[in-house]
Design brief:
The two termini are 32 Å apart. The strands form two sheets. Strands 3-2-1-6-7 form a five-stranded parallel sheet, sandwiched between helices. 43% of the residues lie in helices and 12% in strands. Helix 1 crosses helix 7 and helix 9 crosses helix 10. It has ten helices and seven strands. The protein is globular and about 55 Å long. By secondary structure, the protein is an alpha/beta fold. The chain binds iron/sulfur cluster. Iron/sulfur cluster (SF4) binds next to helix 4.
C-alpha cells in the first residue's frame, strides 16, 4: 500500500513549527500561495525549506487573480459557514492537488494551535480520506512557544508578524475585525481603499454590519495574542 506524510505549510509560524516537530517523518511540504499574501511569505517559505531540508511545493489557483477577484465575481464575502475566498483560493486548490497526489494512506500535518481544537475537529470531518496529525495540539505548543522555536532556528518571522499582526493571513483578510481593519488602513491604505470600494460595489461588508468606509478610526480591540496559522 502506498503511503505519504505531507505537511501543509501556510506561511504562518505555527504550520512551520508543526512541520519541524515531525521533520523525521515528513515526505513533503506543500504551500498554497495567494497573490494577497505579503511578498515576504515566499522568503519565509524558502527559509523554512532550508531548515527542513525540503523544497516546498508551491501551488496556486488558476481561476482568480486575488481575493478581490473572488469577491467581485461571486458577489460574496463570508458567512458563519466560511469565506468564499478560502473555498476558491485554498480548499479547491488543495482538492485539485489531492486528485493527482493522494495515496492510499496519506497523513497530513497541520499547524493548529492548542486553542484551535475546534478547527482541528472540523478539518478531520471535512477531509475524512486522510489521517490528520496536529503536533502543536498534541504537544501543547502555543503561539509564544512557536515564536521561540522559530527564533531558536535563526529564521526571521514573516513580515506581517513583525508589523504586529497575529497571523500571516492575506493582507486585508475578510475575517478580520474592526481593530484589524484599522491597522490595515494605516499599514496598507491602498488595500483598505480598494476593499472599501468593492464592498459598496457588491453591497456586502467584511465586518458584519459595518462597511469599511464607515469604520471609525480607533474602533475595535486588539485581540489577545493568540497567533494562528493562515486561514
Ligand atoms: S486568509 Fe483571509 S482573505 Fe485570505 S483566503 Fe483566507 S479568509 Fe480569505
Amino acid at each position: 500500500m502506498s503511503e505519504q506524510v505531507v505537511a501543509w505549510i501556510s506561511a504562518g509560524m505555527p504550520s512551520f513549527v508543526a512541520a519541524y516537530c515531525m521533520r523525521n517523518i515528513i515526505g513533503k511540504t506543500v504551500y498554497i500561495h495567494l497573490s494577497d499574501q505579503h511578498p515576504d511569505s515566499l522568503r519565509f517559505i524558502h527559509d523554512c525549506d532550508e531548515v527542513l531540508g525540503l523544497e516546498t511545493e508551491i501551488i496556486r489557483n488558476d481561476q482568480y487573480q486575488s481575493v478581490n477577484d473572488v469577491i467581485r465575481k461571486t458577489r460574496f464575502i463570508n458567512s458563519p459557514y466560511g469565506a468564499r475566498c478560502t473555498t476558491e483560493l485554498k480548499i479547491k486548490v488543495r482538492e485539485k492537488w489531492e486528485r493527482k497526489n493522494l495515496k492510499d494512506n496519506t497523513h497530513y500535518i497541520w499547524g493548529m494551535l492548542p486553542h484551535e481544537k475546534h478547527r482541528a475537529e472540523r478539518l478531520k470531518k471535512s477531509i475524512p480520506y486522510a489521517n490528520h496529525i496536529f503536533p502543536l495540539i498534541d504537544k501543547d505548543i502555543n503561539a509564544d512557544k512557536c515564536c521561540e522555536v522559530v527564533a531558536s532556528l535563526g529564521v526571521r518571522p514573516p513580515a506581517m508578524y513583525e508589523l504586529g499582526y497575529n497571523n500571516n493571513n492575506c493582507i486585508g483578510c475578510v475575517k478580520g475585525g474592526m481593530w484589524y481593519w484599522n491597522e490595515i488602513r494605516q499599514d496598507f491604505p491602498v488595500v483598505f481603499q480598494e476593499r472599501a470600494r468593492l464592498e459598496r460595489e457588491i453591497g456586502r461588508s467584511c465586518i458584519k454590519g459595518v462597511f469599511l468606509d464607515e469604520l471609525e478610526e480607533g474602533r475595535g480591540r486588539q485581540p489577545k495574542i493568540k497567533r494562528g496559522g493562515t486561514r
